[in-house]
Design goal:
By secondary structure, this protein is an alpha+beta fold. The protein folds into 3 domains: about 35-90 and about 150-305, Cytochrome Bc1 Complex, Chain A, domain 1, CATH 3.30.830; about 95-145; about 315-495, Metalloenzyme, LuxS/M16 peptidase-like (Cytochrome Bc1 Complex, Chain A, domain 1, 2-Layer Sandwich). Helices cover about 50% and strands about 15% of the residues. It contains 19 helices and 11 strands. The strands form 2 sheets. The chain has a 6-stranded mixed β-sheet with strand order 1-2-6-3-5-4, with helices on both faces. A hairpin with a 5-residue loop joins strand 9 and strand 10. Mean pLDDT is about 95; it is low at about 1-25.
Length: about 500
Amino acid sequence: MNRTRALVVSVAALAVGLVLAAPARAQGLADLERKVVQKTLPNGLNVILLPRPTAPVISMVTYADVGGVDEDQNATGLAHIFEHMAFKGTTTVGTKDYAKEVEATKREDEAFLALRAESLRRPKPDEAKLKALEEALRKAQDEARAYVVPNEIGDIIERAGGQGLNAFTSFDQTVYHYSLPSNRLELWATLEADRFTNPVLREFYKEKDVIMEERRMGESQPGGRLFIDFMPVAFEASMYRSFVIGWMSDLRAITRAQAEAWFAKYYRARNLTAVIVGDVDPESAMPMLERTLGTIPAGEKPGPVVTVEPPQRAEKRLTMEDPSQPILIIGYHKGDINDPDNAAYEAINDIVAEGRSSRLYKSLVTDKQLALYAGAFTGLGQKYPGLFVFVAVPNRGKTNAECEAAIWEEIEKLKAQPVSDDELQAVKAKEKSKFLGTIDSNMGLAMALAHAQNLQGDWRELFRSLAKIDNVTAADIQRVARATFVKSNRTVGTIETAAAAPPAAK
């Protein structure tokens, strides 16, 4: 059996299996949905519990409804900076002597502000003074660091049997997560209440150096450089135009006071959601959660971003000359996650880019051998209107222009010819399989519930997603493709291979 036929057979088998299992699956999902317990605590914090007592473990997610899109010019990167700071401890965790640490921290801030003022002085700073101020800051940092107990939060969680302690910041959200034995639920709740009530932004300037190194590492990759330059061309107004990690000049200048103000605005109970999935008893857990998470200050939920990305009126292009292999990015503006056609976009993504049986892979990689890689993704911006993005990496001897023409050819086919019923059913089967894979683990289910609650306004949207997939028709796909994939709505970014610059003369 050749590879193409094998792929068709395997997808068909998957579709048949899912159809046969549909009644049992629907019943299982309905039972799962009925077990969800949701409560808004008196301080406004949203708690979602889902008992799943298959093993004595729990997975916990704390979702802050804030991301890079909420930042302002001159202060990009704050969302990601505070994610790092949330692991540095509190007034009681992570310190040897908090009273003395406070005084040392004040001197550290004073040293940084003096350095910042000189570095921003126009027309230019005094270099000798800069060096002296840098040395003063290093000395103040060393004095403050003497009172720090490094990684005490992580050590406490590890000793309690915790796994997967981590966090991430995106354009739309900041999420903290890990798993614990189920008898340690109160430990988690106590630590979360403490770090989102009494955070201490210790080692602040040292951690900014770590983040700036992350930025440098991203820029060291040609694809990273292209995306960083691509986003502000694709977006004129939306803060999706700014890379989440922040601009280097902002990272250098941001103060601890700015990060504390960020915390005071966005890390209040009304802007937080806690999700617990696993061996949890809602009846006994909820009173304990009220005693712990209920102590986080209520605050006010910040309003949504006001600035709306205007319709794109003309095609935009940027070309980056770089001594790397060529790379092609094509972005088309689309609606947010709550757009009525969001499921259709997901179906289009499966058709053109999901796996070796997808249209782009078969056309560009297998048949024409134009590309080493050809794919697409839909999730670049979800809370607000974002992008549907195509990506290709040309083969040796092939060009971005050839890949772009081949992608456009596949897009035109999508607009001109309705997808077959077999292809549509296979797509729906794959989407359902991905959905079931997502909710198979406690952590995956906790993440999905938090995501639905905050981005779609209701955790129940998670369980409605299968119906939305089932309702997508071939006509929907054709209509959405015709409306979205037009030249005036696209931004094209390319890396064109250029000769490396000669080494500087000695």
